[in-house]
Design brief:
single chain, Cytochrome p450, three-stranded antiparallel beta sheet, Cyt_P450_sf, Cytochrome_P450_monoxygenase, Cyt_P450, Cytochrome P450
Length: 435
Amino acid sequence: MTSTREHRTHPEAASVAETLRVALEVALPTLAGGVIKRRPAMMAVAGKLQFDRRAVRLLRRLRDRHHGHPLKLRVPGRSVGLALSGADVKRLLAGAPTPFSPSTVEKRAALGHFQPHGVLISDAAERTARRRFTEAVLQPGRPLHELAAPFARAIAEEAAVLPQSATLDWDTFNVTWWCLVRRVVLGSAARDDTTLTDQLERLRLDANWAYAHPKRKQLREEFRRRLAEHLKRAEPGSLAAVIAAEDAADAPDQVAHWLFAFDAAGMATYRTLALLASHPAELERARSELDGLDLTEPHQLSYLRACVLDAVRLWPTTPMILRETTEETSWGPAGTTVLIFTPFFHRDPDLPYADRFEPDLWLDGRAAENPALVPFSAGPAICPGRDLVRFCASTMLANLLREHRYEQASGPVLSPERPLPATLDNFHLKLKPVG
């Protein structure tokens, strides 16, 4: 029986040729780039060949051919659906955790490498308590976290030591970003603990292979013990102090996910900086927002936050959102995997702003009218760290832009005069301070 709790959408059967095209032009490039930890070499190839552009064109043709109906892909031994309309995206994301669970077989296999008890892959019985804990610490819906003041000071201090005398590349920015992340999450005593995040990086690289790579249980336990020691210190002014007050037994697994997510936040911040470096009007508006502000104190910085949101729209840090049905629905039997390829919906050629930098759409209501724009997902499983991430990213950008202007030194041309690239390789993108 089809669930009465969701709209009766009826997938159309994809042909074998259509399924193969989706596998080769959508799924394979996404997997090759690294879904848990980006692979720089593959991202360089993806940037040069603009894989996402090809994927968007394919899905647009499929949407037109099938009149927006979802597709049931011909995957041997599996029931797999592909969303092709914004209405279906809205229903799928609103239907978490049942009948559309965020905990899919692929996610459980991948995230189990470093956070086997994380909320994202929890079953319904455990999810509620873990989600409640996560929201209590990260405080979604609150533009300024209760610890925004010490976080703002930490961001200002880290931005001040970021080398600015030569070309700014990803590696240089990333080192500073991780110093900041460790301070925000675990406290200043963890600032230089690169071993912790190096261990996490190795586990995440394994996680790219999901069930095709054996789990390194010893490394995972070493990482967990090291993380638990930082959390035990509960340093004031860090998330660890808030965590201590919540007393959650599986806190290390939740924190491991936050560290994982902050990696994507760093990519979004750096890409936003590149966009502002190449869009003079948007840069001047962002800098004017900083007039008279003491950046060692927290501020909402609405326009800079909108800039970050649009960078994530243009280049989603989660290109594939997965859901798994917990019961029979119109998508198929229980256990059906449903795919949402976010670059297609964010770069839909029918959108007038598809290929341009348009921060205002997050301020004037246009984004809210489009349920398929989901830079931080949506529905009950929406990213609980979205407001904290936007605060950290916008405050870092504010500190960098207050003191310097930048111009591109390498990478694809980002310009308001031409369509922005569909795939952007941040690893080989360089900026140059010019004053």
